[in-house]
């Protein structure tokens, strides 16, 4: 074998035995020469392939791209190109390949034929497709989740699902996307969340932790957040599940309150019993003494009226412990009830330079109520007002009919008011801000008004407090 022959043979081998598919393609697209790898890749015998043109082995959807690049090549605008395209296997399977195409020209510059290299990338494409489908599936799960889900990147909302839009009370996703998560958070809780959404160790999930969110309408809600590191659109991100737990929290609070209430009731009942017994003894002895000290009648009258009052209070404490059973309902006139209360508190208001102004609408309808209990309510409210006005001032009591079904009693004072953070707690048994307070007054009011199917609304600012009591007419 001479040198040239040897060289030719080497070239033929380099073509025939190359691990990737190779073909020499005529300018009209006919396959002039193909190697083993290409035959194997497309499932044809060499003789079969040589009868076909490149069009017949190309996936119909990918013909278009080839044509445009081919023209560029033929026009001499490019020398070669690489492209990803699909071929069709003899058994009709789709084959993904990376095609590199070069045009060989004659010495005169006329196109002679194409040299093409075809590398199988089907497995790679399948893997890519799997990732893509996985991501699509993830997006769907996120979108359809009944829990609010926010995908965060560097603390910013990158994606939010419909449930999230609802939770935050926004009108559309675009109101939220791009915003920092901190915009929705009650600022006192800032630090806790920072750890959650910017955690350095992004391989672990964090939470659930409790937070307070401020909705678009300004309403605050309690939420529970759990964050999980994830990949979203090919980039690391944080998948945050946000659950509204306001209702759960409220129920919890109610349960704690009613628990405290039971304890308060039991205490009250215990005390009432303990005090009633010695009281009976005192009353008995007083009666004996009264008959012997007839000239002191005036004192005895005062003592016995005070004793009656003590007894009444004790009975009320008992009412408190078993509120449903002992109330005595009758048709009551609010005007009379309020006037009696104002008289009763006169000494105290005079001492504190407080004037009570009553504005009672004439001809009010009667209400079905337990008079003593309602008196208790008004006394409790008025005492609070008096206690809030150490420098004196005016307390206005207004009564009007709201509609055919209810009356409104408004007690407006000029006291120091109730700060916002305290407003939430008042009415809880034993909650007081006063040195000698019991913290039971408002709780009793709430309970009694609730039994009368009424409603209490308290509004307060630094200039005073307004109590509004809504009572149904009978
Ligand atoms: N009219 C009012 N003005 C200011 N603060 C009030 C008023 N009414 C109630 N409060 C606040 O509510 C708390 C609870 O009231 P209450 O249940 O009657 O218990 P107490 O009067 O024994 O403290 C009070 O300690 C006070 O801080
Ligand atoms: Mg009070």
UniProtKB/TrEMBL annotation:
* Catalysis performed (reactions): ATP + protein L-histidine = ADP + protein N-phospho-L-histidine
- Family annotation (Pfam families): HATPase_c (PF02518), HisKA (PF00512), PAS (PF00989), PAS_3 (PF08447)
List each copy of the Histidine kinase domain by range. 270-474
Q: Which residues form the PAS domain?
A: 7-77
Keyword Transferase (UniProt):
yes
Task: Report the residue ranges that make up the PAC domain in this protein.
Answer: 81-133
Keyword annotations: ATP-binding, Kinase, Nucleotide-binding, Phosphoprotein, Transferase, Two-component regulatory system
Q: What is its EC number?
A: 2.7.13.3
* Family matches, as InterPro entries: HATPase_C_sf, HATPase_dom, His_kinase_dom, HisK_dim/P_dom, HisK_dim/P_sf, PAC, PAS, PAS-assoc_C
- State the protein's name: histidine kinase
Where does this protein come from, organism-wise?
Niallia oryzisoli
